[in-house]
Amino acid sequence: MPQTLPNYPLTRLNTFGLQSAAEQFIAIDDVATLQSCIADPALRSLPWHILGGGSNLVLPELVHGLVLKMDLLGKYLQAEDDDAWYIAAAAGENWHQFVQWTLAQGWGGLENLSLIPGTVGASPVQNIGAYGVEIKDYFHQLSAIHLHTGEIRTFGLSDCQFAYRDSIFKHSAGLDWCILEVVFRLPKNHQVKTSYGDIEKALAELGLSATAHHIAQAVIHVRQRKLPDPAQIGNAGSYFKNPIIPAEQATALQAQHPALVMYPLDAQHTKLAAGWLIEQAGWKGRQLGSVGMFAKQALVMVNHGGAGQRDVKTLEAAVQRDVLNQFGVMIESEPICWQ
């Protein structure tokens, strides 16, 4: 029987730095250990929680049941054909380090996703994205194990039901699957993307050409300038999703607010910049108790010290209320909130 660690502190295992502990805890560094846990009736009687890099989580003071920390490691070239390289990485691999490793091998594609905190295994759950690129753009397949039956299954692109910061693994049909390994398809004729956000400006500032490696440098430069380092001040990255609203509503809002930051998606839908909405609602750099919205980027909620889940949810509700009152738009939180 795998040995669990009781009342295990999680404060250092979530980038928000929220005060939290697990009733029971096991680090999973091989698949056999996870399979042993699944086969153990005593452990199976507990609620289970899968923890990756802890970068997109709002933890309670006490996580009831068992927390399994995914520490599976390994990355390699799985296959290649005339058009692409297929790169596999285990769920516990650090995402940013993995991206930089692919670039060092000469495999472009993931450079726009540099410096996103978290693990490879968590990246498909959230369909992480930045600067015009999402995981789904370079995803090939993943393997996952069912936490009740022990079945190991391969999920292809369509199986994952990717959407904006969403996938099947955030919904009932996918909650019992634990990701073990992810395979990315990186095209040999990769075309870099520089038009989104501040990438072109950063390339010019740094005197760099538009190669995949240089774009990674530019993205890192921009993110370090705008976003807080979790090692310095606790945060879970972008706390709110950019809302997608009907195009007609966006047009009407723009008439009222000419500076409205928005990105047309198609003829029917427009994405608004949640950070701009939050700033206009007066929350940029504003604190409520031990948490606040970051002074350099209103989209990011930060922990000024000693915060817990209740503090976070109180500020979340206050920001949502003020944005809704001013713009008639409800913004949704992005991190996963454990109960």
Description:
By secondary structure, the chain is of the alpha+beta class. It has helices at residues 31-39, 41-44, 95-104, 123-126, 199-206, 212-226, 247-256, 274-280, 309-327; strands at residues 5-9, 21-28, 48-51, 57-58, 62-70, 75-80, 84-90, 129-130, 133-134, 139-146, 152-156, 177-187, 234-238, 244-246, 262-264, 269-272, 287-288, 291-293, 300-303, 336-337. The strands form 6 sheets. The chain has a 5-stranded antiparallel beta sheet, with no helix packed on it. Helix 5 crosses helix 6 (212-226). The protein is globular, with a radius of gyration of 20 Å. The two termini are 27 Å apart.
**Succession of helices and strands:** EEHHEEEEEHHEEEEEHHEEHEEHEEEHE
Low-confidence stretches: none
Helix content: 25-40%
In spatial order, strands of the major sheet run 6-7-12-10-11
Report the portion of residues in β strands: 25-35%
**How far from one another are the termini?**
27 Å
- Count of extended strands: 20
Please work out how many helical segments DSSP would assign: 9
Shape: globular
Overall pLDDT? 96
Cα radius of gyration in angstroms: 20 Å
For the largest beta-sheet, the strand count, sense and barrel status come to:
5 strands, antiparallel
Decide which structural class fits the backbone: alpha+beta
